[in-house]
Write a structure and sequence with these properties.
The chain is mainly alpha-helical. It has a two-stranded antiparallel ribbon with strand order 1-2. The radius of gyration is 28 Å and the shape is elongated. The termini are far apart. The C terminus is likely disordered.
């Protein structure tokens, strides 16, 4: 089914929602609070853009198009963060607002990763603690996060092009409909006169 566009049968941008939800799940698992907040806003804006497409609300679609620029910028920052560009460090607590030392969920659960815990009870001050080591990862977790962000950028660019196309279609339809007086409740050619037979009845009474 189409999204509600009057002159096109283009598919609904449901992959945008699925991609955002997938990323939100893994960020929740890794307690990455900054990405969780950004993903939540992204999901809300995507729903708003979809609603605007279905309900013929170009302003909502424009809001989504503007948000895609912010979303692309955010994902570029995530890429720079994990690649440690510009003095950023993937081991910092920036993405957790410095309230925890959690890292990406993929750091311990990536493809091929084996998680081992070694007791540290013999070290003074570290009783009841354990040291966690991860070995055998087929792909380092930062590259998985970079691929996630790169995919989000690609999807956002596709969504931006789609939003611009839908807004242009809506604008053309609105202009053509207004040209024939479709939005004028009282067009110039309208004559507010009573029928002749009704006038005769009023005169007789």
């Amino acid at each position: 089914k189409g999204c509600g566009c009057r002159s096109c049968n283009s598919p609904c941008p449901s992959p945008l929602q699925l991609a955002a939800l997938e990323r939100q799940v893994f960020d929740f698992l890794g307690y990455q609070w900054a990405p969780i907040l950004a993903n939540f806003l992204h999901i809300i804006i995507v729903i708003l853009g979809l609603f605007g497409t279905i309900q013929y609300r170009p302003r909502y679609i424009v809001v989504y198009a503007i948000w895609t620029a912010v979303w692309v910028t955010w994902n570029i920052f995530i890429i720079c963060f994990y690649l440690e560009v510009g003095g950023l460090s993937k081991d910092s607590e920036l993405l957790t607002f410095n309230i925890s030392r959690h890292q990406s969920w993929w750091s311990e659960n990536g493809p091929g990763c084996v998680r081992k815990e070694a007791s540290m009870s013999g070290i003074k001050g570290l009783d009841n603690h354990s040291y966690i080591s991860v070995i055998g990862c087929a792909l380092e977790y930062r590259y998985i996060e970079v691929m996630h962000s790169s995919f989000q950028i690609l999807i956002a660019l596709v969504g931006f092009v789609y939003a611009c196309y839908v807004v242009s279609v809506f604008t053309e339809e609105e202009d053509s409909f207004d040209f024939i007086g479709g939005f004028d409740p009282f067009p110039l050619y309208h004559v507010n006169e009573k029928p002749t037979n009704l006038l005769f009845k009023q005169t007789y009474l």
